[in-house]
Amino acid sequence: MDHDLVFSRDGSKLYRGEAGGPQDPEKVSARRRTARNRRHLPENFRLHDWRASKITNDLDNHENPVEVSANARRHSPGYTMARHGRRRAEGAKKLAASSAARIGLSSLV
Asked: N or C end of the chain, less CB within 10 A?
C-alpha cells in the first residue's frame, strides 16, 4: 500500500533509525532545499543534474569508469558509459563541422 513515502538507499537517512527505510517526502524536500541554499544554487536547480555533470566530468577527465560508476551507485559501468560516456569535445567538433558546412566553409581552421 502506498502511503506517499519516499524510500532512501544505502546510508541515507533523515531520521533516527535504519537507513533505507521510509522517509517523509516533506523532509526529503526540505533537506534538498537546504543543500541547494547552502550552495547558493538557483531554485530550479536539480541535484540530479549536478550528479550527471559530475559523472560526465569525471569520465571526460579519464577517471576509471568502474570507480565513477560505483561512486554514482550505478549497477554497472556499461550503463554509466552508455548514459554519460559521450565526450563533450567530440560533440563540440561535430557541432562546429555542422555549422561550418552550413555557412559554406569547406574545413575548420
From this structure: N
